[in-house]
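Field reference: sequence -> structure
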Amino acid sequence: MSERGALRARLDLLAREIAKFGVVGAVGLVVNIAVSNLLWRYTDIPTVRAGLLATFVAILCNYVGFRYWTYRDRDKSGRTRELTLFLLFSAVGAVIETGVLYAATYGFGWNSPVQSNVFKIVGIGVATLFRFWSYRSWVFKALPDKEGVLSKAGEPVEPGAPAVSVPSPVPAPVPAPAPAVRVEAADTARR
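Structure field:
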């Protein structure tokens, strides 16, 4: 495959991943906003606390979508590690998201229902960028390419088995032809 074709294939895979991440995120957004509004309307929980509770409900919903749809083809060997990292990075995202809502509510006094929803969505948007990067980089790690992965004995690797990556062979450089040298035989008879 040409370098340009390989780049196009990688960009197509990234676009599909972003689209799936977006669909799961949109479901999480609906859950987050619905739970926030239910808590704001029917309970006496303060705005930021209700928003944080709604975020954690959405995080649980999103984990299921990411693990079983968006990143279903990724490494599944370390579920405890995966869930721990997911919760850690989700908590950082929740701090980012809630920080925006906190600044709007307590810093600027913008706490009407419409303003709370607007800043909740802005916070979710900022936190989503962080979450996308962290989930794809650290939580749902990509499996190694099937091509070029061999066991230590040189046999193809079974899924989930330890593997070593074998670099593609680099062609040996072709030696340049020696420059043509004109050699004239000394004519001893003429001298």
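Note: The helical segments are 3-42, 47-70, 79-107, 113-139.
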